[in-house]
Amino acid sequence: MQPVLRYLEEHRQEFIDRLCHYVRFPSVSAQPHHRADIDRCAQWLADHCRSIGLETELCKTPGNPIVLAKTPRKKGVKKPHYLIYGHYDVQPAEPFNLWTTPAFEPRIDGDSLFARGASDNKGQHLAHLNAVEAYLKTGTELPCDLTFLIEGEEEVGCTSLKGFLEEHAKELRCDTIVISDTGMPDLKHPALTYALRGIVAAEVTLHGPSRDLHSGIYGGSVENPAMALCQLLGQLRDKKGRITVPGFYDDVVNLSAYERKQLARLPHNESAYKKFLGVKELMGEHGYTAIERRSARPTCEINGLTSGYQGDGSKTIVPSWAKAKLTFRLVPDQKPQKILKLVEKHLKKLCPPAVRMEFEPGHGGVAYLVSPTSAPAQAALRALKNAFDCEPVLLREGGSIPIVNQFRKTLGADSLLLGLGLPDDNPHSPNEKFSLTAYTKGMKMSALLWPELAASA
Amino acid sequence: MQPVLRYLEEHRQEFIDRLCHYVRFPSVSAQPHHRADIDRCAQWLADHCRSIGLETELCKTPGNPIVLAKTPRKKGVKKPHYLIYGHYDVQPAEPFNLWTTPAFEPRIDGDSLFARGASDNKGQHLAHLNAVEAYLKTGTELPCDLTFLIEGEEEVGCTSLKGFLEEHAKELRCDTIVISDTGMPDLKHPALTYALRGIVAAEVTLHGPSRDLHSGIYGGSVENPAMALCQLLGQLRDKKGRITVPGFYDDVVNLSAYERKQLARLPHNESAYKKFLGVKELMGEHGYTAIERRSARPTCEINGLTSGYQGDGSKTIVPSWAKAKLTFRLVPDQKPQKILKLVEKHLKKLCPPAVRMEFEPGHGGVAYLVSPTSAPAQAALRALKNAFDCEPVLLREGGSIPIVNQFRKTLGADSLLLGLGLPDDNPHSPNEKFSLTAYTKGMKMSALLWPELAASA
Q1: A169 alpha-carbon distance from chain centroid
Q2: Do A283 and B223 lie within an 8 Å CB cutoff?
Q3: How distant is the Cα of B15 from the closest Cα of chain A, in angstroms?
Q4: Mean pLDDT, rounded, for A15-27
Q5: Pairing of strands A393-397, A356-365
């Protein structure tokens, strides 16, 4: 193990230069005019994987190419097999004028490397590639087989990945998937994310009169759809911050005492959090902390409201219709389709007869949970502890990573989410950055992870 | 009198062409980008008044110009003086896509002339101008002095008119004011409107986080301003359709048994009314008929809702703010400023502490009531009867004409409301129209009105 760690230390500058090179590709998947940059970036990545000794394929898909890179297999030797997932595509860099220096010209300032894609996700999967390079270049035998799957459509919905996984299900079948694409509270709190929230969306429209009406001539004799919508949606949440839809909480797996204790260990400064969000007061479901509310409890959010006149001044009408965009964040084991049905049924029951309700179901994804006491999770926690020299924390994320459900379904394996991002990394925002310490310690974590995982298999 | 009526008959097509020309001006006072159209429209109107023999002034105001046009006065002859009020500004035409043909390109279909402003109010005051033209062009002596006051800010609260009336109080002092800006039940029920509702407007904005937030990462721990707005506004009306603001009904003058009997005489077919509005069910304050609800009872209407993402698909955010445009229709003797204060106080009390409420008061006007048995009212009823050849009815209108209170206050005169609009004219809505029969009979009514009024003086 020592040669591997020494190699990582001795090549530190080279790894930084490599990341600088990698982030120069403007591999923006959302923007068609960057299609050639996507191809160049994927080609460079494949060449790099080959150069460090991985058996590499640049795979065509209906969308952007996928890089598949494997450690050389020893014939007849059966080792555990782990898949490392990452993505080389990045978010658009707009608005460009808010960047201190250009988005695709890396700048190092102190411990930070600024560039689009530095944290999300080039720096994070490059850390794993560098760790494996150290094994291969020092001739240190890996206790497992590894396959890197690095795709180019994560920022646009992973469209091609599902088909690719189904087509390559046999060769990709593995014991565990490792993904570094989430975050940790700070450098003293390396983290294993063991749960994600799910989501389900819907659009509710209340139709009243066949057109906007003069509120003087007709107002008072006909239902106002905007008022009806307010009264309808207002009933979805009670005074204790709980969602009133009957059956909504039936499938919720409540937090265990152990989990609540772990979540309470997380660094959290309420006044700093309020200041960061720009609010005077926090609020949410009674009986839960802010961290629990935003990661381990389901929610009902109104994402948008539209009705009547929205321009300057006043327009004295009874609007013809009123609309709301809704999303519900879900937790294990809530099922998106079941929740949609419960919500629709409840709203239909509450909807006054003087308006007509239209309910349009939207996209959905289930929540995710792996046991933090499983052997692979415990192995990951040991690797985090030894690499960062601190006690790691257990995290639940409030957002969704739909791909982990796809992996579970197609490859039958759970994902270990070992994110290296910091809260101020600005992924998806101007001035995205990546901590060079997170990068270096991430490589060490990866190097330590494979023996731990293999030993626990 | 005969030459006047003959002139009106012989020039019918010319009057229709003139109205078509007049409605082509998109004189939308609420939208600053139409400012030049306002000026062009006022200039055309002034030129027209001059061309028919009126002594005309295009008066500058701090806002939109006012057209003042007088019949030539005979020196030393003291006649009764009547003021005819109208407005050349119109409501915004949005949403444009709901118009069968463009809002500012007049279309005649059967007895209807379709265009924004056709009924509200260009067609209605043009009928009076045409009648006076008939007197002037045929050399028929008017038994009274007439002054037309046609302004350009009626749809945005008549901001400049108050100062103008005060400044010109002496020359505008008159016996009665005549306004055609209301409606009649149908062409067989010409109407004198003896009461109007008042109005007061406000805009309520709830401010939450300083920017739209990722609903996965933060949702559940911070108030959603759109949900808070729904819950806040939903509480403004109870299950019996009554407004919950404490003190709201304190100054309401209840309907007398006589009035309820008169209103019950009006033609009203509930299933036709529902069909016309395009609703399955009517609704409103318990204990009142539809006619009473929309004319003699106060209301609270949401005119517009705006929050978060309103485009295609879904955007998973907690919006930074949510806004509603509100208007309250008032009845005698509710006072707009007092109601605004009560509403603001009530909303502030109900507003949750996790959002910041901004309450922006809007325009207001008190309700209006005149005796239908006064001499000028009786004169008007005779003119209506002879022009339309039917028994006229007595109406209360649900809408507001704040200016009648200003006239009463500044000029010391009551207003006769002799509206020519029909219930399906769609003022303030797409496909506004005006009945050509109402236009023609309206001119005749105006021609007959001046001798009746002068004889009753």
Answers
A1: 23
A2: yes
A3: 27
A4: 98
A5: unpaired
